[in-house]
Amino acid sequence: MTIRTSGHTSRRQFIAQSAAGIGGLTLSQLLWAEAAAGVRNSRKAVINIHLDGGPPQMDTIDMKPDAPREIRGELTSIATAIPGFRMVELMPKMAALADKFAFIRSIVGCDDRHDAFQCVSGFKTEVLSSIGGRPALGSVLAKLKGKPSDDIPPFVDLFQGRGMARDSARPGFLGPTYTPFRPDMSKFYTRELDPNLVRALAERGHNHVLSLSLNSALTPNRLRGRVDLLEKFDRFRRDIDRSGSMEAMDHFTQQAVSILTSSKFAEAMDLSREDPAVVERYALPEPNLSRYKYSDEAKATTKLLLARRLVEAGVRYVTVSFSDFDTHTDNYPRLKYSLPIVDHALTALVTDLQERGMLDDVTIVAWGEFGRTPQIDLNTAGRHHWPRVAPAILAGGGIKTGQVIGATDKHAGAAVARPVHFQDIFATLYHNLGIDLRSTTISDPNGRPHYLVEHGETIKELI
Q1: Domains in the chain: how many in total?
Q2: What Å distances lie between residue 21 and 6, 38, 215, 263, 295, CA to CA?
Q3: Of residues 303 and 167, which shows the higher confidence score?
């Protein structure tokens, strides 16, 4: 298919002009065709993976084999595709594909709070708390790129566990208009919450997630089918627009109507529509190991397949979580169960995106809210909170992979080379999304503009 354009072509114009030939294209093919046609607004995206609880740096990507046993622990390291870099034996698939990842051993500036807020915003909770706090990156994207009529939301939160219970992916001072779209995940994946999180979720009320289907009373017979329903909503919108009260309607309600009356989002969340061979690639059989009570089940690997399908449908920012890395007790039995799940899911995602030609457009970051204590607690066989340094793993987005950034001391307790702040990660994510940090601001309720990061800089080794 040859598409000729003259001058700048918008994405909307491109799709309209080439609708006859574009019907069966995947997102990756569409992006290629857009580039060939000179369309400038490629739909870059981010998949942000929260390793809920804070993974131990010395038991994952910062092994210390020469440290005393009470620090190095019982796990051994294995060679990787990056010469001289070794990582934990529980992640052999990632080790084999290490050249497709960038490993950061020196994340600093942790808030020492048990939620995912800093991992989705770059800021500590208290920053601008008097006016609602800083917004999550996805909420910023919703503000800059979204509109109520979108049938695909720019920001989808698939958190379960601590991130959802504590409303980590919150819109901050941008207000509830830019709350993420949260589909109900409970029918897909079992994720038990500890009593503290159950209470935290109860305090938020019952409307913290949305069903993926319309009320059963809205049957096709009553509304003369789906097309008739859509037409009714369109007339409703036009009538309100003429009255001038459209802007007064709740933005999120409008978006929910758009999403729930379109099949696009629900189909993206329906894995039965995926190629069974691809589902099989992501799937991981339940291991013959004891599963910790609050950990994800093995089939949680397909959360990243859902994330890929959402990005392919047009979502710009997806948050996902894997639990449970809050290893105050039984550090090693829990890691032996949970790390292979993350290992399999991440490598399946990267391989899938690469084969679809999407990897350069989708940035992946996987990390937790802090690291873990260098010394094992002999009483609990666990590692406790350690905000002085934490690990992170990135891939995709056109970044330079196959490298290790930063270093810690001999006990993995402090960054001694190339410290990387949370906001440096976010500066890099914004850069990969095509957002100019020097010229882009968002305004708080008082009309005061704020830059998207306060002191972060793009990580020069990655760009």
Answers
A1: 3
A2: 19, 17, 36, 21, 46
A3: 303
| pLDDT at position 156 over 60 | yes
CA of residue 319 relative to chain centroid, distance: 3
For residues 312 and 268, the answer to whether their CB atoms sit within 8 Å is yes
Do 403 and 292 have their domain in common? yes
Distance between CA atoms of residues 416 and 401, nearest Å: 22
Which residues have C-beta within 8 Å of that of residue 142, sequence separation ≥ 6?
153, 154, 155, 171, 174, 178, 180
How far apart are the C-alpha atoms of 56 and 415, rounded to whole Å? 14
Residue 459 lies inside a defined structural domain of this protein: no
462 belongs to a structural domain: no
Q: Does the pLDDT at position 247 exceed 80?
A: no
CA proximity to 305, closest of 181, 449, 136, 189: 189
Burial class (CB in 10 A: 0-12, 13-18, 19+), 416: middle
pLDDT tier, 276 (very low <50, low <70, confident <90, very high otherwise):
very high
The whole domain housing 34 covers 10-42
Examine the domain organization and report whether 203 and 248 are in the same domain. no
Do residues 134 and 127 touch, judged by C-beta distance below 8 A? yes
- The model's pTM: 0.84
Residue predicted with more confidence, 353 or 202: 353
Assigned domain for 187 exists: yes
What is the pLDDT at residue 23?
Answer: 44
Neighbours of 104 (CB within 10 A): 27
Structure-token match 């305004």, residue found: 443
Q: Are residues 431 and 352 in the same domain?
A: yes
Rounded to an integer, what distance in angstroms lies between the CA atom of residue 31 and that of residue 40?
Answer: 10
Same domain? For 75 and 19 the reply is no
- 20, two tokens: 């006859």
pLDDT (tens digit, 9 = 90+) per residue, 360-383?
A: 999 999 999 999 999 999 999 999
Q: Please indicate, yes or no, whether residues 244 and 368 belong to a single structural domain of this protein.
A: no
Same domain, 35 and 51: no
Say if residue 96 is exposed, middle or buried (CB neighbours under 10 Å; 0-12, 13-18, 19+).
middle
Cis peptide before 324 (omega within 30 of 0): yes
Inter-residue contact 192 to 294 (CB < 8 Å): yes
